[in-house]
Design brief:
Structural class: mainly alpha
Helix content: 40-55%
Distance between the termini: 50 Å
Bound molecules: zinc ion
Strand content: 5-15%
Number of helices: 6
Shape: elongated
Order of helices and strands: HEEHHHEEHEEH
């Protein structure tokens, strides 16, 4: 469970849950197989109850999760991968994600594809909404070794990097300190 202080607002919370559906620390994977992944999507309201992902749809969802984790790391200042953006564009095309007007005249991204492919399309639509709404840059993943915990940065200037200073931040600082010390010892020898 994500602590309230770290939880992303609205539907972006679903993307955060997707990123955290693999727990690096405990090695626990909520999307371990197609059945588990189908149940996860149904709980999020993205796939009809009882529907099952095909193996291709399951593979796509796993790739989409890896991509979203990469993009959250990029939001924390890590290097991005252009192929991640290409995958989002691919899902948009394959799942037929398209702009649509609601009855009240509000623009939204709609997905008519009912299958598991449609559920990946709905996930990508949420990412686009967050990009347009300005909340995306605040969904970050901790770059700590074997961590990657996804959190929503609520600091005023969007400056948070670590899950917690105690768990990952201070360890990274200690590693950087040791590396600097090794370098300076070499240069004085
Ligand atoms: Zn961490």
């Amino acid at each position: 469970m994500t602590p309230d202080a770290d939880a992303a607002p609205g539907r972006l919370g679903i993307i955060q849950d997707l990123a955290n559906s693999y727990d690096d620390v405990r090695g626990r994977d909520e999307l371990a197989d197609a059945a588990a992944a189908s149940a996860w999507l149904s709980r999020q309201g993205l796939l009809p109850e009882g529907a099952q992902l095909s193996s291709g749809e399951f593979g796509l969802l796993r790739r989409l999760r890896a991509t979203i984790r990469d993009l959250c790391l990029a939001n924390s200042g890590c290097e991005g991968h252009p192929e991640d953006l290409a995958l989002l564009n691919d899902v948009v095309r394959q799942a037929g994600v398209h702009p649509s007007l609601e009855r009240d005249g509000q623009p939204t991204l709609a997905v008519d594809t009912p299958s598991g492919l449609g559920s990946s399309g709905r996930l990508v639509a949420i990412v686009f909404e967050a990009l347009w709404g300005g909340t995306w840059v605040r969904l970050k993943a901790c770059p700590g070794e074997a961590c990657n915990y996804a959190f929503y940065d609520r600091t005023r200037n969007n400056s948070r990097t670590w899950c917690t200073m105690a768990r990952c931040g201070s360890r990274a600082k200690m590693r950087a300190y040791r590396a600097r010390r090794r370098t300076s010892q070499r240069s004085t020898q």
